[in-house]
């Protein structure tokens, strides 16, 4: 068939990772390369030791060939994540994090742990953050009603996680409410 | 990505798609040319590899876009043949395909089941029978979706009568029909 059953209703985490790979990161190249035209735009020229911005997939590719160092984004530091975690556990709302932070941080920690300070500490902080946010997501389910629910600052991976359940819940609620403009 | 999350078929991005395909062709041609050239240096080889990686990435995106559309067209084929509004969102090739697919599907259903049923029930589009779900698949426009506002959106009316104002960067879970216009105008994306 045109689309496998597993992909019909929801996107998979690996697809989200794929999308996140289009984001720009800074690298310090170890080789020089002229400006190269890609389909999504021209990147470069690479001239060590100057920093340049390239898409994440390009950085990962170069990194795995040991041809660059990746500069971790400014939010991916122990101090910043600690602050966020503090915010997360004291406040009710979700704290502000980049929209695709889970994907980007996972890729960077997998591919380039040697370019990041204190990767183990970061990993455990990210895990704590994730658990705190997950718990909030679940308690947020009680607020689902038949027409609208706003979820500020949630990131794409988390949305994907709660999507099946929330959408199902909302559809059922919609069917239960009469005259709400449904065609079911 | 919008196409994957929307229950309805979105307007075809024919110009964009052709553009991307053009780029793809040009890049692959360039790569072919350089590979055959024995004088290319080590450094250029690296660039070729990178360009090829990107070609594969773009191909994947195009693939999944086209597949998603195809799936929706097959699913709603019969509905498309009767709905002129939806037909404007398809390209000519997609429209032909939908009509042909619907015809073949009809013939198949008729040959296997319908012809042996009593005359009054031997049609797919029996609207006079009440309390029966329609046998024609339609896009469910009130399906909830996650919408991410890229710009400030004007307030809209929710089905229960209240209004919703989406500020920039807000994310909200709501019915597709509510945010349909924002998505079409590019003010919001589905995530």
Automatic annotation (TrEMBL), chain A:
CDD domains: GINS_A_psf2, GINS_B_Psf2. GO terms for biological process: chromosome segregation; DNA replication; double-strand break repair via break-induced replication. GO terms for cellular component: GINS complex. Residues 75-174 form the GINS subunit domain. InterPro entries: GINS_A, GINS_bundle-like_dom_sf, GINS_Psf2, PSF2_N. Keywords: Chromosome partition, DNA replication, Nucleus. It is found in: Nucleus. SUPFAM superfamilies: GINS helical bundle-like, PriA/YqbF domain. Its main location: nucleus. Residues 12-71 form the DNA replication complex GINS protein PSF2 N-terminal domain. Belongs to the GINS2/PSF2 family. Component of the GINS complex. This is DNA replication complex GINS protein PSF2. It comes from Amanita thiersii Skay4041.
Automatic annotation (TrEMBL), chain B:
It is found in: Nucleus. CDD domains: GINS_A_Sld5, GINS_B_Sld5. The keyword Nucleus applies. One of its GO terms (biological process) is DNA-templated DNA replication. InterPro entries: GINS_A, GINS_bundle-like_dom_sf, GINS_Sld5, SLD5_C, Sld5_GINS_A. Residues 31-105 form the GINS subunit domain. It comes from the Eukaryota. Residues 139-191 form the DNA replication complex GINS protein SLD5 C-terminal domain. GO terms for cellular component: GINS complex. SUPFAM superfamilies: GINS helical bundle-like, PriA/YqbF domain. Its main location: nucleus. Keywords: DNA replication, Nucleus. Belongs to the GINS4/SLD5 family. The GINS complex plays an essential role in the initiation of DNA replication. This is DNA replication complex GINS protein SLD5. It comes from Amanita thiersii Skay4041.
């Amino acid at each position: 068939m045109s689309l496998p059953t597993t992909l019909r209703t929801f996107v998979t985490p690996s697809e989200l990772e794929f999308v996140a790979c289009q984001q720009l990161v800074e690298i310090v190249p170890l080789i020089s390369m002229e400006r190269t035209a890609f389909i999504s735009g021209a990147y470069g020229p690479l001239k060590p030791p100057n920093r340049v911005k390239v898409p994440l997939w390009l950085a990962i590719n170069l990194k795995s060939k040991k041809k660059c160092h990746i500069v971790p984004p400014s939010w991916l530091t122990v101090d910043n994540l600690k602050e966020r975690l503090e915010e997360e556990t004291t406040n009710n709302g979700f704290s502000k994090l980049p929209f695709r932070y889970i994907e980007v941080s996972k890729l960077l920690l997998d591919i380039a742990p040697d370019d990041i300070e204190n990767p183990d500490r970061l990993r455990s902080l990210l895990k704590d953050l994730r658990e705190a946010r997950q718990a909030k997501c679940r308690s947020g389910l009680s607020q689902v009603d038949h027409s609208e629910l706003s979820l500020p600052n949630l990131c794409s991976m988390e949305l994907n996680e709660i999507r099946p359940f929330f959408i199902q819940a909302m559809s059922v609620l919609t069917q239960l409410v009469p005259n709400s403009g449904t065609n079911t | 990505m919008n196409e994957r999350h929307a229950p309805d078929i979105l307007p075809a991005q024919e110009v964009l798609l052709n553009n991307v395909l053009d780029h793809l062709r040009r890049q692959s041609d360039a790569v072919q040319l350089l590979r055959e050239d024995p004088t290319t240096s080590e450094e250029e080889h690296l660039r070729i590899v990178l360009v090829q990686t990107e070609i594969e990435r773009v191909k994947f995106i195009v693939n999944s876009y086209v597949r998603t559309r195809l799936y929706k067209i097959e699913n709603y084929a019969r509905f498309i043949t009767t709905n002129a509004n939806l037909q404007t969102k398809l390209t000519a090739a997609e429209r032909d395909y939908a009509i042909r697919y619907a015809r073949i599907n009809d013939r198949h259903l008729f040959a296997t089941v319908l012809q042996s049923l009593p005359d009054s029930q031997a049609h797919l589009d029996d609207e006079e029978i009440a309390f029966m779900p329609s046998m024609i698949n339609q896009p469910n426009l009130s399906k909830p979706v996650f919408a991410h506002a890229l710009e400030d959106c004007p307030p809209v009316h929710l089905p229960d009568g209240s209004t919703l104002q989406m500020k920039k960067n807000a994310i909200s879970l709501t019915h597709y029909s509510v945010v349909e216009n924002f998505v079409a105008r590019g003010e919001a994306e589905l995530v």
